[in-house]
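REQUEST FORM: STRUCTURE PREDICTION
Request ID: SP-0412
Submitted by: Lab K.M.
Chain count: 1
Length (residues): 268
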Amino acid sequence: MALSRRQRRSAFRWAQYGLLLVIVVVFALLADWGRLGKAFFDLEVAAKQFPDVITVALKNTIIFTALGFVLGLGLGLLLALMRLSSVGPYRWFARGYIEFFRGLPALLIFLAVGVGVPIAFPNVFLPRNISIMLALGIVSSAYMAETIRAGIQAVPRGQVEAARSLGMSPARTMITVVIPQAFRIILPPLANELIMLTKDSSLAFLLGTTPAQQELAQFSRQALLEAKGLTPIVVAGLCYLVITIPLSILQQRLEKKYGAGVPGGGTV
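STATUS: Completed
RESULT:
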């Protein structure tokens, strides 16, 4: 008797469940749980990470991310407005900046800030936090600029025309009408950018570090030299999740609330 389409889909789905169950059982039977537990979940090694993994590493990671996000958002907004400007050189510069820095790995930007700035400006000393802020801000601004530009262009043209008909200048229309609505639209992708920036903060070690300046990745690498397993990496990973999971939940809620966006397009 031939199966109906619905029955075939159901049989295929149950076959996938069965395959997954077989894989899990085979892994459970073959794995050396004692060795895995010692390598990844050694509670004695994990206990030695506290409280510094929270009071130093997690705190520094949050500070570096916040600094980079603030600078990236400011630069991104400026670049987005330049991309939409009627002045050609502004548009060309913004486009060149965005394409250049979006095409480079964050690693190279950190190295450029750490090595290039002292060479270019030998009499200028940048505090480490400012250097990290600058590197993360450059990395994130190129992405945020395009996100903000898309948000501005998603604001309905009628909103701009209504504001102009009330006698508002182009600048006032942009500041009081377009940008607030654009940010409401781009809140979900900005939350995603914050998650990416949290992970990019792990490159801060390239700019030099002391024990009190370590972020999560550097802290776990240092602890790894003393431990015989990968438990420090697991602890650091869980701390990253403490930051990124709430941000992911926030992003999903923002997408549910604002994700539909507003169709249309317009510039002032």
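NOTES: The CA atoms of residues 210 and 218 lie 10 Å apart.
Reviewed by: T.R.
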